[in-house]
Amino acid sequence: MTNKFTVILPMPARDPDERHRAATSLELLFDLASVIAIAAAAASLHHAIANGHALESIPRYLMAFFAVWWAWMNFAWFASAYDNDDALYRVLTMVMMGGALLIAAGTPRFFDSLDISLVVGGYVVMRLGLVPLWLRAAKHDTVRRPTTLRYAAGIVLAQAYWIGLFTLVSTGATIFIPLVLLGFVIELSVPAYAERVSPTPWHRHHIIERYGLLTIIVLGEVLLSAVLALEAAWDGSFDIRLVHVAMSALVITFAMWWLYFSREEHLQTNKLRHALQWGYGHVIVFASGAAVGAGFAVLVDVLTAHAHVTLQTGDFAVAIPLACYMLGLWFVRDRLILKGAVRWVLPCFAIPIAILPFAFPSLEIIAALAVATVATRAGLLRKLS
């Protein structure tokens, strides 16, 4: 009997209507490698904000996060359409995981000194590792060969751009950020360009599960900050304020989870425009979710006198990403599938959450508003049903 793990198998398109399709153990391992890089970006953001460098750290966080998220997202959608789980597929996936670890290792250096060598190197490894898989798909899925070849060529050209940027442009140059943004546009345009020929047969429920799993992992960053607060609260002398931070982190995590995993199904159609909005728009959800954890870590530093910023800054570091998380969910789901007043619940609560720290220390109120968002949204939906 042939062992599929030790041979090279054909890579035809998978059935997009396959029953009981679920994330594989290899995909979960890939998520683990990716979330290490996400955690490195969140930790670097936390330390930068705590040291009074919030404005300069936010663009760096977004750039580092984009690198991890985009590589993760492209692998997730490819695997949904073409995963054959043979030996070569596994090895190439593991190579991409190594790239994620390079990004994680290089992120602190990027934040500290704008040294992008490891971040670019890891990103290029993650992206080029996908090219042989697209070429394999091109060989065996003749119907969608133009699509798969467009993906392969687009990835190669985009990586040539990043290597050229790293080689030719100093990170301190005025033109560096605009060129980075141009690189993002090039990357984002590849799927939109390729899928218009003949859409790949990704599995809708499998993709929904993959995104949900990463959301859960990202929320773990907030729970980790709750643990840090509790550790600090009993480190030598008891500080009730740190207990309040831990409880608020726990409540906000539960509210964020509840808002994401509501009864409404994400990605209700396979239409390309909807899929692109939903798939791309999740970068707001993921990046802001991890940033909420960084914000709580800033609060712990403030209360333990390890930060150079005020308590108000710590509240902002929680409130703004939490508001962005809600707006991101509104963008990818609620505005598309809900009607009436319930459609506007998330923006209506996100705005006061974002501005409350201007008035007074408001962490507990922010947590209460997060719960109120869940309750209001659920109550209005119950009336509609």
- Measure the end-to-end span: 53 Å
The string of secondary-structure elements, in order, is HHHHHHHHHHHHH
Instruction: Examine the coordinates and then state which fold CATH places here, giving the name of the CATH topology of the largest domain.
Output: I/LWEQ domain
- Kindly state the percentage of residues in helix: over 70%
Poorly predicted sequence stretches spanning 5 or more consecutive residues: none
**Looking at the structure, what is the overall shape?**
globular
In total, the number of domains comes to 2
Mean pLDDT: 94
CATH architecture of the largest domain: Up-down Bundle
- Largest β sheet strand count, sense and barrel closure: none
Number of strands: 0
- Briefly note the structural class of the backbone: mainly alpha
Number of helices: 13
Radius of gyration: 22 Å
The portion of residues forming beta strands comes to under 5%
Describe the structure.
The protein is built from 13 helices and no strands. With 385 residues, the protein is mostly helical. It has 2 domains: 171 residues, no CATH class; 181 residues, I/LWEQ domain.
